[in-house]
Structure formats: structure tokens, C-alpha cells
Automatic annotation (TrEMBL):
Transmembrane segments: none
InterPro entries the UniProt entry points to: ADH_Fe/GldA (IPR001670), ADH_Fe_C (IPR056798), ADH_Fe_CS (IPR018211), BDH-like (IPR044731)
Domain (Alcohol dehydrogenase iron-type/glycerol dehydrogenase GldA) ranges: 9-175
Organism superkingdom: Bacteria
PROSITE patterns per record: ADH_IRON_2 (PS00060)
Protein name: Iron-containing alcohol dehydrogenase
Pfam families for the chain: ADH_Fe_C, Fe-ADH
Length: 386
């Protein structure tokens, strides 16, 4: 293992009814409530949040309309409100897009220039407003991590960034708040959570049996729970399991002691989303198995472990490469069984912009850790995905 520091300051209130903690967490502050396209007004979450904030005697401001793949223009709107109204704390109520937008508003509110300078790392992030979250969709892990992903439609860039200053101070995860998530969006959440676990798994650090076993257990649980949840979208037990999986898959636990894993698939997916604005989980379900098939040809060792320990594939009478290939097929078949997209043509994407997508993938240097990809490798993965 590598040396590591574990320090996650987010207070996680997990379980039914935990919204009752909100009034104490917010108190009498000036709060900006950030939310998306209106699902919280249909499923009762908005009323629960407002009731708690009124109980706390908070002064409430609202920023509705955060897009899926949140946009810089919306971040600007939020920053303007924070500055003009002297907001004390931000409350994100929604999925990853709402939380990520809120994180960007938090740093923009404390900076005199354009927040894009901070997101692009032109200027270091030195301060942020505090944020809390009420999670309504199990997918990204943003409720307990310091990461955010923002799209700039002027430059067609979708950039991930992070700062310890934007760890949520608290997050409220009530599985009943995810009952209304559509089947399609639930599938995307399962795929995104599994991808986070898988990308952590493909690391190069030696002697990591505990963390490898933890990831394998998380993946087996997702494989067992996902199909049951899709048959019964309002099952508390299955929503609860998926919610805990998605938070744990990306709250830094799975990188303890490793080099962090290989996030090339996320880099390529963000590049595609920057150009075509597709759902994140849908992009990953297309790309990850093709990334896996690409890298296992050079080194089948971890794909073989995945095949045996997660999918229960026997190695008897087979070469390492054959077992690894069977593992990649098993992952593809599982996601196919959930009806997750498996080709870019699902989103009407052909090879027209392939060079542009490759350019966007390399917007930051260094793509991949398990295998460092060059432009040709990314092209190979994209062509396999068409
Ligand atoms: O807009 P609203 O009304 O909130 O509706 C949303 C949206 O239409 C809906 N939804 C959310 N909760 C619901 C609900 N519908 C019914 N009932 C509910 N309870 O679901 C749709 C998708 O929401 P969104 O927040 O976009 O999904 P997700 O959580 O998958 O977030 C995706 C974004 O997060 C980024 C992605 O790139 C993408 O921009 N990521 C962020 C990460 C992070 N911060 O750590 C890591 C991820 O890898 C990812 O890149
Ligand atoms: Zn993701």
C-alpha cells in the first residue's frame, strides 16, 4: 500500500426521516437553496426542506433550474445571488448536477473574478462558502466528496475539479427521496456507481487485498441489488442499499492506500458530454467495457481478478487473457440486462467529431494510470464504442 491520509469531514445523515436534522444544521442563517428542473416540487422533497428551514427561521433564497450536466451560466447566476444577498450557506437539493453546481457557486461567491478561472485552475481556490446537501438521486457520490464537474457551453468544455474546501459540511441521504427517480435514471446511477468502483479497482499498487476485496464486495452487491431495484423502484431496502453503494463508491474510501485507480473512462465520457450533452451514466455504460477490452490485451491480471471474484467465472482450462475477456463480457451482459446503452449510436453519435472528442479528452495531460492512453488508444476505444 501507499501511505495515505483519510480525512472526510462530511457529516452524513443516512436514513428515512433524517431531514429532521436540517433545521439544526442551517439555523438562522441566510441560505440559498439550489435545485434542478422541478422534480423536488413533484415528490414532496421541496416541502420537507422548506418546512425545516422555516422551523430554523432561516432567511431563504432560491436558485432553481440547474441543468443535467450543470452549466457555467447557472453557476454565474448563483454567484450573483450570493454576492448581492450576502448568503451565509448553500443548500443543494438534488442529484450530482445540483450538488456540483452548488460547489462551484460556493467558490465563485468568494472570488472577485470569473469562477471559470478557479475551475480551470488558472487561479488557486482559497475560500468557499459552506454547503450542505439533501440528496435525491444515488449516483455520483458528490454528496460526500470534494469533486464537481461543470460544463462551459461557450467553449464546449466539461471540466472536473476539486478542492477540500467544497466537501459538504453535511449531507442528508434519505432513500425515500429517491423513490421517484425514473427507471432510466436509476440505471444510470447503478452504472455510474459501479464505474466509480471499477475505476478505483484498476490501480497499480501492490499489496491491497483489503481495498480490492471491499471493491469486489461493493460490485457484487450492486449486481445483486440493481435488478431487484429495477423491478421495484419504491423498495426501501434496495434504494437504501444503492444509496450507500453510490456514496461509498466515490467518497475517497476506495482509494485509501492505492494510486487512486484509472479514470480514463470518466475523462473520455466528460469529453463526449462536452460535445453532445449526453447523460453521464449512459456514456459510461458504453465506454467502460470497451476501455476494459482495450487494456486487458496488454495486461489481463486485474480483469481476470474481476472476472473470478465478482462474476464467479472459473479459470479452469483457460489462459489469463481468456478469463479476463470473459470478465469484460460478463460486465457488458450485466449492463445490457439493465438495458443500459451500449453504443454511441444510441445517442446518434457517429465518428464525425471523433478528433474533437480526443482533443477534449487530452485537455489535461495524462489519461490513465493502469494503462496510460495515447490518442490512438482513445480512438480505438471510441471506435469500439460507435
Ligand atoms: O433536475 P431535477 O428536477 O433535479 O431532475 C433530475 C434530472 O432530470 C432527476 N432527478 C433527480 N432526483 C430525482 C430526479 N427525478 C425524480 N425524482 C428524484 N428524486 O434526474 C435527472 C438527472 O439528475 P443529475 O443530477 O443530472 O444526475 P446525476 O446525479 O447522475 O449527476 C450527473 C452529473 O454529475 C457529474 C456528471 O458528470 C454529471 O454532470 N458527476 C459528478 C461527480 C462528482 N461530483 O463527484 C462524479 C461523477 O463521476 C460525475 O462525473
Ligand atoms: Zn461518474
Amino acid at each position: 500500500m501507499n501511505i495515505f491520509l483519510q480525512h472526510n469531514p462530511t457529516k452524513l445523515y443516512f436514513g428515512q426521516g433524517q431531514i429532521s436534522q436540517l433545521s439544526t444544521e442551517i439555523g438562522t442563517k441566510k441560505v440559498l437553496v439550489v435545485y434542478g428542473g422541478g422534480s423536488i416540487k413533484q415528490n414532496g422533497v421541496y416541502e420537507d426542506v422548506m418546512e425545516e428551514l422555516k422551523k430554523a427561521q432561516a432567511t431563504i433564497f432560491e436558485l432553481p433550474g440547474v441543468e443535467q450536466n450543470p452549466r457555467l451560466t447557472t453557476v454565474h447566476r448563483g454567484v450573483d445571488i450570493c454576492k448581492s444577498q450576502e448568503i451565509d450557506i448553500l443548500l443543494a437539493v438534488g442529484g450530482g448536477s445540483v450538488i456540483d453546481c452548488t460547489k462551484a457557486i460556493a467558490i465563485g461567491a468568494k472570488y472577485d473574478g470569473d469562477v471559470w478561472d478557479l475551475i480551470t485552475r488558472k487561479v488557486p481556490i482559497e475560500s468557499a462558502l459552506p454547503i450542505g446537501t439533501v440528496l435525491t438521486l444515488a449516483a455520483t457520490g458528490s454528496e460526500m466528496n470534494p469533486i464537481s464537474v461543470i460544463s462551459n457551453w461557450e467553449t464546449k468544455d466539461k471540466l472536473g475539479w476539486g478542492s477540500p474546501l467544497v466537501f459538504p459540511r453535511f449531507s442528508i441521504s434519505d432513500p425515500t427521496y429517491t423513490f421517484s427517480v425514473s427507471r432510466k435514471q436509476t440505471v444510470y446511477g447503478i452504472v455510474d456507481s459501479m464505474s466509480h468502483a471499477l475505476e478505483h479497482y484498476f490501480h497499480r499498487t501492490k499489496n491491497t487485498p483489503m481495498i480490492d476485496g471491499f471493491i469486489e464486495s461493493l460490485l457484487r452487491t450492486a449486481i445483486e441489488t440493481g435488478p431487484k431495484l429495477l423491478k421495484d423502484l419504491t423498495s426501501y431496502d434496495h434504494r437504501e442499499t444503492m444509496m450507500y453503494i453510490s456514496t461509498t463508491a466515490f467518497n475517497e474510501t476506495l482509494s485509501n492506500g492505492t494510486d487512486g485507480g484509472d479514470w480514463a473512462t470518466h475523462r473520455i465520457e466528460h469529453a463526449i458530454s462536452a460535445v453532445y450533452d449526453i447523460p453521464h451514466g449512459g456514456g459510461l455504460s458504453i465506454l467502460f467495457p470497451n476501455w476494459l477490452e482495450h487494456v486487458l490485451e496488454d495486461d489481463p491480471s486485474r480483469a481476470k481478478m474481476l472476472a473470478m471474484n465478482v462474476f464467479g467465472i472459473s479459470s479452469e482450462g483457460k489462459s489469463d487473457l481468456e478469463v479476463a475477456r470473459d470478465g469484460a463480457k460478463a460486465l457488458r451482459s450485466f449492463w445490457d440486462s439493465l438495458e443500459a446503452p451500449n453504443r454511441l449510436s444510441h445517442y446518434d453519435i457517429d465518428d464525425t467529431d471523433i478528433e474533437l472528442i480526443i482533443d477534449k479528452t487530452f485537455i489535461k495531460p495524462g489519461v490513465g494510470v493502469y494503462k496510460e492512453l495515447d490518442r490512438e488508444s482513445v480512438k480505438d476505444i471510441l471506435i469500439r464504442s460507435l
